[in-house]
Each structure stands twice: as C-alpha cells, then as structure tokens.
Design a protein that fits this description.
By secondary structure, the protein is mainly alpha-helical. The chain has helices at 2-6, 15-29, 31-40, 59-81, 93-101, 107-126, 129-136, 139-161, 185-202, 208-227, 277-306, 318-334, 346-351, 357-377, 382-385, 387-397, 408-424, 427-444, 453-466, 468-475; strands spanning 87-89, 164-166, 174-176, 340-342. The chain has one domain (8-475). The longest helix has 30 residues, at 277-306.
Amino acid sequence: MLDTFFKISERGSSVGQEIRGGVVTFFTMAYIVALNPLIIGLAKDADGKYIGGGDAPNLALIAAATALVAGVLSILMGVVANFPLALATGLGLNTFVAVAIASQMTWQDAMGLVVLEGIIITILVLTGFRTAVFRAVPTQLKIAISVGIGLFIALIGLVDAGFVRRTAAGPVPVTLGDGGELVGWPIVVFSFGLFLTIGLMVRKVKAALLLGIVVSTALAVAIENAFKIGPNFDGTNVNPKGWGLNVPAVPSEIVATPDFSLLGQFNLFGSFERVPLITALLLVFTLLLADFFDTMGTMTAIGQEAGLNDKDGTPPNAERILLVDSLAAVAGGASSVSSNTSYIESASGVGEGARTGLASVVTGVLFLLTTFLSPLVAIIPYEAAVPALIIVGFLMMTQIKSIDWEDYGIAIPSFLTIILMPFTYNISVGIGAGFVSYVVIRALQGRTKDIHPLLALVAGLFMIYFLSDPINTWIG
C-alpha cells in the first residue's frame, strides 16, 4: 500500500531509504525547535510584551507550537504532494517578523499580517499564478538556483559549526574560526563528523549521513561529559570554545508535557490600527516576496538533487507543493510561531536516498514526537548535525556543469544567482538578482522574445523589493 501510494519503487527507492531520509532530514532541521523560541520568544512587541502577552518569555510554549506545526505540515506535504520536503518556521522570516514587524505592533497583530500574506499567496497558487511564474523561469536559471542553494546550505553548515565566524572588525565580514584559528572541542566533533560521513559515502555505506550524525552526537556527549564545555553563549557571556545552540548532555528527563495554548493567538486586521496602511502593505509585500521565491528555489533544488525534475526543471506535483507551502504561512501565523516554509535541509534526506513523500511523513511524525520528547532532541548539537549539509552542498554543486557558460545572457545571471545566495545569506536575493540581470541582459542583446512576460513582471517586483528603503523614504 505504501509503495503504491507514494510510488516508492517507481522512483527507485525503498521504504528503508525513505525512513532513513526522513530521519536525517529531521536531525538536520530539528534545531528550529530550540532556535525559534530564542529568536521570537525573547523579542518584545510595541507594548513591551513577550509572545502570549506575558511579562516574561515562555520558550517552552513556543517550542511546543513550533514542533507541532512543523510536524503537521511536513506530513501534509508528504501525503498531498508526495515530495521529500519538510516544513517548519522559516529562519530569516522569523527574525524579520520579530525585529521589524512586532516592534511596531502587538505580536498578535504581527501574526495577523503573516496570516494575510499566507492567504494572498494561497490565492496566487489556486489561480495558477505562482506555478505560471515558476514555469516562466529558464531551465538553466533553475539549475543555477539549485547550485546557489547548495553553496548556501554549505555555508550555513560551516557557520553553525563555528568553522566560519563573523568578524567584529576588519576588511572581510567572516573569518576562519575564532580570529582566524579553529578552537575548542566542538570543532573537533564537526571535523570528525565530516570526515566520517565522507568516508562512509566513499565506501558507499547506506545511511552514511544518519550514521555520521548519530556517531558524532555520541562523541559530543562524551566530550561534554568529560570537559564540561558549555554553550558558546549563555545569554550573557560568549565562550568561543562552546557548543552551538544545544549542549550535548544526557537530559535529566526524556518526556515533557507540551502546552499548545499559543494556537489561535493572532489578530487578522489589528496591524492596520497600529501602523499606516502603506507600511502594513509593504510589510506584507516583503513577506510575500520572500515566501514566494524561497520555496520556488528550494523545491527546484530538492527535485534536481533527487532526479525528479522534468526536462524543464519542474518537480512533480509542483502545484500541490506550492499549495501546501502557501498554507504553511497561514498555519504558522495562526499558531503564533511565525510563517512556516519549506526547508532546504530536506536535501540532506534526499542525499540519504529519500525520493517520495514518505520521508516527509517520517520527519513530520518525529516533529510531533518532539512536542513530548523535546529534552531528547536537545542532545544533538549543531556540530554533529551540520556535516550532512556540507556533503549535500557538494552534491548540489555538481549540477553547475549543466549551465552554458558561453552564453553571457544565461551565464552572468546564473553567476549572480549562485554567489549572492551565500554572500547575502538569502535565497530570495540570489533569485531576484538572477531574474533582474537576465531580463536586462536579454534586452540588451535584442533577444526580448526569450523574456517571458511573467518573468519581466517579477523582475520589476524584485526591483521594488531591492529599492524598498528609498521608496519608503520617498513616500514618507
């Protein structure tokens, strides 16, 4: 029944592969359950209140709702779209919501804007507009998006592991480790996990990514138990030699009772009473643009890596994928945990062999279990999980050979797309730069017939997005 429903054999996979892929995807994105509360839970709204209207942060409340929504949506993606793509609260979007939106209104009002954005993008899917825009993108530009995302997730892995860090001052924004040096035991765990995973892949061992994560986590727990390293930031002090996000210690308890009282805490039109209409509309537009194209890039990259895309670079059931992702924005806002979106970390599951929606169902079930087993998930540190992202980044990078580097009309937009994703730490920026430069160069070449009208329209919208600050200043 599973094989027939999910087309497992048809896509060259097996139930075992799908389960392994789903588990690996969960391990590489489970950090969101701990990180989302730290991003949105510690931010105050315009009334000086924390999420839920309290005078003190309640991180456990946010963690439970984050895991619940991620679990339900990932299962929905697997069952409805049959695609190995998991969803959770969007990183970047949650920061934008907490810093730029909630600071101007109540948190419930901010969540109302997220729900409105989700409703709009769902309508765009149901009318066929979102899918039409996706199909208007040249195939080679879709490949460039996939390659750029590969570099992006590799950089995410390096930053999360502490191998690459921001510099406090100097001519470059990032550097190797702490001040140009690799320090601390966590880097040893990361390096061990990376070489272990590479070795297992070279030897063609099944479950290489999963084994790498599990063995590295066990090593991390042993090291923490022996040396008592602690976190790299405890809320007050910075420890350059500490663990990123989770400290890998065996928890005193395994099961915790979740509290889902955050669900339904949103005010659909409250923001329009707190800020000017044009401000609210621009905030919705920014959310919409990021949501619209982040997912387009993500599903292209996942489909390409899994070998599921057709000759035009379109994954199967594209309309259903986009529909579930659009509804995820609504669900995230309605659950008061910020917009949910598709996760590029799903590529790690594809690297483990996932090819169908069964992997997403497995990931979703694990997220649901996390609502009760959150102490257990907190064992896994960044340093043990992110080697999988480095490997997947490499695999996605290999697609670059399919781009025609002799045709500047596609080569330059592809180049800008690829480099700007990691350099700006933003998928949408890379996609926007590629679209705008493609339209401009093809026009200069006198090849306007190669520019789809929808692509020209979207390029114009991206120009508004890039120039939003001058526009805001102009309109006051």
